[in-house]
Amino acid sequence: MMNRAFLSVALLLLVLLPGAPAREDSPEYCVTPFSILVSNSVTNAPNKTYSTCVVYRGILLKGMRRLQKTNKGFRFTYTEDPTYGPYLQSVNGLKGNTKDRTYWELLVKQANETIRLNVGIGAFIPSENDQIILNFKEY
Ligand code: B12
């Protein structure tokens, strides 16, 4: 009886221990590497490329969060759309807006084909070695 109580407390402590990385943050689970290229078709500012990864069938948003945590040069914000989920609002301080009719377009380059994503950052699941393109664009 005593042993069981001790075990439960020990397990609880392990789970709550500060600094213990969540499963999705442990490098050994981050099995799908991919890159993110930031481009700007409005100003033609130079492209920037970053590397990140997701756990098995993890979503793009999580890979972007991981990158933001580990690389000070990459920043992004998003808003929550009630119908479609996370909407990418800004990248590295540059915000899309309705007045200028600009937005961050999501593309993926797989092998030699570039495809426009048909879902947002909260639903897309990157595959190994995908190149995700975040392209600032006018509509
Ligand atoms: C217009 C439109 C846009 C415009 C919206 C700008 C504006 N201020 O009008 C622009 C060009 C910016 C856009 C962008 C994208 N869109 Co769009 N868009 C539409 C469209 C044709 C109409 C939406 C609309 O006006 N509804 C009427 C208004 C009154 O309702 P609303 O809820 O206020 O509409 C808002 C949302 O729809 C939001 N929105 C638009 N697209 C997207 C996409 C995502 C992922 C989110 C979270 C929100 C969102 O913007 C609208 C205005 O604020 C729909 C298709 C359709 N016929 O519904 C696709 C649609 C919503 N878009 C879609 C997609 C995939 C995208 C992109 C991811 C495309 C891409 N690869 O870049 C990007 C978003 C990228 C990002 N930054 O996160 C998909 C969403 C599917 C899904 N389940 O995720 C749809 C359904 C089209 C499709 N392919 O089937 N889009």
Automatic annotation (TrEMBL):
This is Transcobalamin-like C-terminal domain-containing protein. Pfam families: DUF4430. GO terms for biological process: cobalamin transport. Residues 69-137 form the Transcobalamin-like C-terminal domain. The keyword Signal applies. GO terms for molecular function: cobalamin binding. Residues 1-22 form the signal peptide. PANTHER family: TRANSCOBALAMIN II, TRANSCOBALAMIN-1/GASTRIC INTRINSIC FACTOR. Coiled coil: none annotated. InterPro entries: Cobalamin_Transport (IPR051588), Transcobalamin-like_C (IPR027954). Keywords: Signal. The keyword Oxidoreductase does not apply. One of its GO terms (cellular component) is extracellular space.
